[in-house]
């Protein structure tokens, strides 16, 4: 096809219109005309063409002013549906959405500890689809976020001791067969990084790291706007990183070293809290109690910050990113107090003065990142949108937040 031919120009304009509608929601013809830079007749022809092809639908009227109400247009969400899944050792949290990004239903179900995990997972997805009036094989794509990383060589989930029932087989391949649809499996913190690029603090940042200090410590590394996965999919798996325990309180920890994950486990944090006179049932509860205790809880917060900063220092020394983002329940419970303490400790450990901030996206960041990732795949397939605007971890994804 010749460059500049009428067919090519129509395709370019159609894609621009679809992108504008996905990014902004329902628009009038004149609003769309202003966004894509076409004349009034050309925009009207474009909308007629897209409506005939079921790509767009009429979506009510916009009133206001003294003139007549204007027709609104939006992307036809019924063209395709996707599922976004946050898989943890205890639960599976599912959202079903249409291609416009509108969430049709949500479903959360418990997961067995080790056996029959596939059956429980497939049943939960099936229930979510049923709630949305669909079957699993009607989904265009499913993205599953979980602890650990999928080895690209064999599809097996590695670095995931908390998910023992999911090891030893091609996880995405088995899920594709069970659900009879396309499935991708992604590390949960990687999906948090995607969400921070879309709707968080990393929208204008090219090189950053998300750290999830929790019972299973994880990290996501973004370099030049792209996720670094590593040769075996294990980039960012810092849970097993050996670090010294620099906490001042005596908790019978081996001061010469332990894994990052061990020092930030619920058991270890609760033990550290008891050494400071605080009793808690898990890590984020200990942090909340320390903050509520005021000055009496500060020494615990300093000790916890030392443990977090010691692990983060290894990441900063190697990568020297523009930004470190702390995410997850413990980071959010600690708020700016914990964040500032970690930053102060980090400055004593490494040369780069990397800023540390709390991740902006809270609530369900893993599932939200999975939603954007699944929408990117669906929109590329259905609308032919270029990868630069739809691919995960590369630039803004044109979708509204699911929350």
UniProtKB/TrEMBL annotation:
Stretches that traverse the bilayer: none
InterPro entries the record matches: ATPase_NBD (IPR043129), ROK (IPR000600), WH-like_DNA-bd_sf (IPR036388), WH_DNA-bd_sf (IPR036390)
Matching Pfam families: ROK
Superkingdom, taxonomy of origin: Bacteria
CDD domains xrefs: ASKHA_ATPase_ROK
Protein family per UniProt: Belongs to the ROK (NagC/XylR) family.
Protein name (database record): ROK family protein
Lineage start: Bacteria, Bacillati, Actinomycetota, Actinomycetes, Pseudonocardiales
């Amino acid at each position: 096809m010749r460059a500049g031919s009428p067919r090519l120009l129509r395709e370019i304009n159609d894609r621009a219109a679809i992108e504008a509608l996905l990014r902004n929601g329902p628009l009038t013809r004149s609003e769309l005309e202003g966004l894509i830079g076409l004349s009034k007749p050309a925009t009207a022809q474009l909308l007629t063409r897209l409506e005939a092809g079921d790509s767009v639908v009429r979506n009510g009227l916009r009133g206001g002013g003294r003139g007549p109400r204007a027709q609104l247009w939006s992307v036809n969400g019924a063209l395709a549906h996707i599922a976004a899944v946050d898989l943890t050792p205890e639960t599976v949290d599912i959202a079903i959405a249409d291609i416009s990004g509108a969430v049709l239903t949500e479903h959360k179900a418990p997961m067995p500890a080790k056996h029959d995990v596939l059956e429980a997972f497939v049943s939960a997805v099936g229930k979510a689809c049923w709630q949305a009036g669909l079957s699993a094989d009607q989904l265009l794509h499913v993205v599953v976020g979980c602890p650990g990383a999928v080895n690209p060589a064999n599809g097996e989930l590695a670095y995931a001791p908390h998910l023992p029932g999911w090891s030893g087989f091609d996880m995405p391949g088995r899920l594709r067969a069970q659900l009879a649809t396309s499935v991708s499996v992604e590390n949960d913190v990687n999906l948090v990084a995607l969400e921070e690029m879309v709707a968080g603090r990393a929208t204008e940042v090219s090189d950053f790291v998300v750290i999830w200090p929790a019972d299973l410590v994880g990290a996501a590394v973004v370099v030049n706007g792209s996720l670094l996965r590593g040769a075996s999919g294990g980039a960012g798996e810092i849970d097993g990183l050996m670090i010294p325990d620099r906490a001042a309180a005596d908790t019978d920890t081996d001061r010469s070293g332990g894994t990052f994950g061990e020092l930030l486990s619920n058991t270890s944090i609760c033990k550290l809290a008891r050494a400071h006179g605080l009793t808690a049932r898990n890590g984020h509860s200990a942090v909340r109690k320390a903050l509520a205790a005021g000055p009496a809880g500060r020494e615990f917060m300093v000790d916890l910050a030392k443990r977090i900063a010691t692990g983060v220092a290894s990441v900063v020394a190697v990568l020297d990113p523009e930004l470190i983002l702390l995410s997850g329940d413990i980071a959010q419970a600690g708020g700016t107090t914990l964040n500032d303490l970690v930053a102060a400790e980090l400055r004593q450990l490494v040369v780069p003065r990397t800023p540390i901030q709390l991740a902006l996206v809270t609530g369900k960041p893993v599932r939200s990142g999975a939603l954007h990732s699944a929408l990117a795949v669906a929109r590329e397939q259905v609308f032919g949108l270029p990868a630069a605007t739809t691919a995960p971890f590369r630039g803004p994804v044109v979708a509204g937040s699911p929350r």
